[in-house]
Specification:
The structure holds two protein chains of two kinds.
Chain A lengths: L1 H15 L12 H31 L4 H6 L11 H8 L3 H32 L5 H13 L2 H14 L6 H26 L2 H9 L4 H12 L1 H16 L3 H6 L8 H12 L5 H35 L1
Helix pairs in contact in A: 1-14, 4-14, 5-8, 5-11, 6-8, 8-11, 9-10, 11-14, 13-14
Chain B lengths: L11 H13 L12 H32 L17 H7 L2 H34 L13 H13 L2 H11 L6 H8 L12 H29 L3 H9 L4 H12 L1 H17 L1 H7 L12 H10 L4 H37 L1
Helix pairs in contact in B: 3-14, 4-8, 4-11, 5-8, 6-12, 8-11, 11-14, 13-14
The chains are: A mainly alpha, B mainly alpha.
């Protein structure tokens, strides 16, 4: 377990470790040139990334007329009109709720199911585990577009098409291979002595997993949960193809429908507000878990 | 993130696969277990339940697709005739589909190339851009750049696409507003013009991906033993030499993975196109196969034909991955030959 924790933070710790002070060494002119060029290039790129965000934030408080008048002008009055009309009139509030339900339930389900599956595959010798491994690999590799039409019919035959439950179970199914692959190595690395000790104390298989093994896999679970949250919150194709019921729309498909239905007559102010509504939850997750997120990307490459 | 894959990011998935591969080598067997109620119920729920969901909703659609692709099924009628390879013949004679395929191939070749080159330049600047004496050091204050650059990765791709659609709006959009500040009066209509639509689209995808791969490459570069970099420095290697002779060969595998994932994502590209130009752009200049597939299936109801497109897309995806692996093996061989 300690190795997992370490892996998740290595990069950050290494980069923030205090450097030994360099005494009495002058920077050469070449150093300065490279340093300045690097800073200038990175600063320009940062601007290219941030500017659209600021423009959106600013625009979400402006009227469409103000937006078209000048891209950089400040709004005449700072109010939440755009947010309120996006939330109420265009039902982004309802879609927000749907998204929270679908992503929340799917995330919890896929984490539990994925952990259980990974645990069995990693620590028990079950016949056919090799086949399961290749099936999961196929699930990761093939484009979802290959499956989308048959999937549509399967859900329709099960009367699940357009229902939140149908969407949830599809999310779970498609997020499962990634979750299992990632957690597999975590469960593999946990101590066997502790598992044996739990059996000795008379714990059942169920109890051993939920009270002993699962808590030990926490660092791995956290990393996968963050990635899954972003992946599911940002999911687009599955809801667009499988969730035609307007009352059950999630944010991503609602955004796309709103943007394309109105065309150039679009209410930009409301559109900006809707964009902010969609971004704010991932923004919060990003700010809170920024270190872990970059850490888990780094960790993914370490082996 | 690869937008059709539900979870995680590009690269991460392969990383998970690699990790799993490494882990599966030492498998400790917990002995012959008695089939008690506890153990059987445990296996049924722990393995059976997730597998059942996975088989029904992921594997079975993939398998069915291969069959549907050779029928003339319309989805809503009961009749379904077996037509063999007719669907594929039809696709290869459909100029719109061929155009979409060409656009996809352009995207799959250009997007990864630009993204990786930029990400590598940024990653090198941040990791070895520091002073050339003493320890090999990175750029000061680089954590700020990393936090900012990574940000687009977490924004939903559809939001990115819609956002840039607004930025590209000919009048009132941010881009032409900025151009106006610099006194540029000949302002293009970006997505509305056949000449600029594809380029503008490629820029958006690159914009959203560079930060992620930059972080990935930075992590890979930090994984190179410090001794190797020190040794190169003592031997008198400058920054450029360090990057080309030490960094690049050492992180070749990461670059290859990145190339494959970016390519797979560009072969899909559905979500970006849906937000930027949902109709396929002027003269179908940004139409991609996934968009055409979606339209054929869910607007025209030609399910058999649409599934055949899915099969073509899957085949191109696998061919692309094989091609990249082959090319990188070739480059790798040359590298080693040169060094010895």
């Amino acid at each position: 377990m300690s190795t997992d924790t370490r892996a998740a933070v290595t990069v950050n710790r290494r980069s923030s470790a205090p450097r030994p002070p360099q005494v009495g060494v002058q920077s050469t002119a070449g150093d300065k040139a490279v340093g300045i060029t690097s800073h200038v290039v990175m600063a320009i790129w940062s601007l290219v990334v941030i500017l659209p965000m600021l423009w959106t934030l600013l625009g979400s408080f402006k009227t469409t007329k103000e937006i078209f008048a000048s891209p950089f002008g400040l709004p005449a009055s700072w109010n939440l009109d755009n947010y309120i009309s996006a939330w109420v009139e265009n039902n982004f509030g309802g879609m927000f709720l749907n998204t929270v339900i679908v992503v929340g339930v799917a995330l919890v389900s896929v984490m539990i199911l994925g952990a259980m599956c990974a645990y069995v595959l990693a620590r028990f010798s079950v016949p056919g585990s090799r086949i399961i491994y290749y099936l999961m690999l196929a699930g990761l590799t093939f484009p979802v577009f290959l499956a989308i039409v048959p999937l549509f019919m399967i859900l329709q035959n099960m009367q699940l098409l357009g229902s939140l439950f149908g969407l949830i179970i599809t999310y779970v199914a498609f997020a499962l291979p990634f979750t299992v692959f990632f957690l597999f190595s975590f469960f593999k690395s946990l101590s066997y002595e502790i598992q044996e000790a739990a059996y000795m104390d008379g714990a059942s298989e169920w109890r051993t997993f939920f009270t002993v093994m699962l808590p030990m896999a926490k660092p791995g679970m956290a990393a996968v949960a963050i990635m899954n949250f972003l992946g599911l919150w940002n999911q687009f194709l599955l809801p667009v193809a499988l969730n035609p019921e307007k009352d059950n729309w999630v944010l991503s498909q609602g955004m796309a429908a709103y943007a394309s239905s109105a065309g150039y007559a679009l209410d930009f102010g409301q559109m900006f507000a809707a964009v902010m509504i969609t971004i704010i939850p991932v923004l919060i997750v990003y700010v809170l878990f920024q270190r872990q997120l970059q850490g888990s990307v780094a960790q993914g490459t370490s082996k | 993130m690869s937008n059709s894959t539900v979870s995680g990011g590009p690269g991460l998935e392969t990383a998970a696969v690699v990790a799993a591969e490494a882990g599966r080598r030492r498998s400790l067997r917990l002995g012959g277990r008695k089939l008690t109620f506890d153990y059987v119920s445990f296996l049924l729920v722990f393995l059976g339940l997730p597998l059942a969901i996975f088989l029904i909703f992921v594997i079975s659609p993939f398998a069915q697709a291969l069959y549907y692709a050779s029928t003339n099924w319309t989805g809503f009628s009961d009749t379904m005739d077996f037509v063999g390879v007719d669907n594929y013949v039809r696709l290869l004679n459909d100029p719109t589909f061929l155009q979409a395929m060409r656009n996809n191939i352009v995207l799959a070749l250009v997007v990864p190339l630009i993204t990786i080159v930029i990400a590598l330049i940024f990653a090198s600047m941040i990791t070895v851009g520091g002073p050339s004496h003493g320890q090999v050091r990175g750029l000061k204050g680089s954590s700020f750049y990393r936090v900012i650059s990574f940000f687009p990765y977490v924004i939903p791709a559809i939001v990115i696409a819609i956002l840039w659609n607004m930025i590209y709006t000919p009048s009132g959009g941010l881009l032409n507003g900025v151009l106006g500040l610099f006194g540029v009066t000949d302002q293009p209509s970006w997505l509305g013009d056949e000449r600029t639509a594809m380029g503008a689209t490629i820029f958006v995808i690159v914009w959203s991906m560079v930060g992620f791969y930059m972080i990935l490459f930075i992590a890979a570069i930090k994984g190179i033993p410090a001794e190797t970099l020190e040794a190169a420095r003592i031997d008198g290697a400058g920054r450029w030499r360090t990057v080309t002779s030490i960094l690049l060969p050492q992180i070749r595998d990461n670059v290859q993975t990145a190339y494959i994932y970016l390519g797979i994502m560009a072969l899909d590209a559905f979500v970006y196109m849906a937000g930027l130009n949902s109709t396929g752009g002027p003269g179908n200049s940004t139409l991609v196969m996934s968009q055409y597939l979606y339209r054929t299936a869910f607007e025209k109801g030609q399910f058999g034909l649409a599934t055949a497109m899915g099969v073509v897309l899957a085949i191109i995806t696998l061919l692309f991955a094989a091609l990249i692996i082959g090319v990188f093996r070739l480059i790798g061989g040359k590298d080693e030959g040169g060094r010895s």
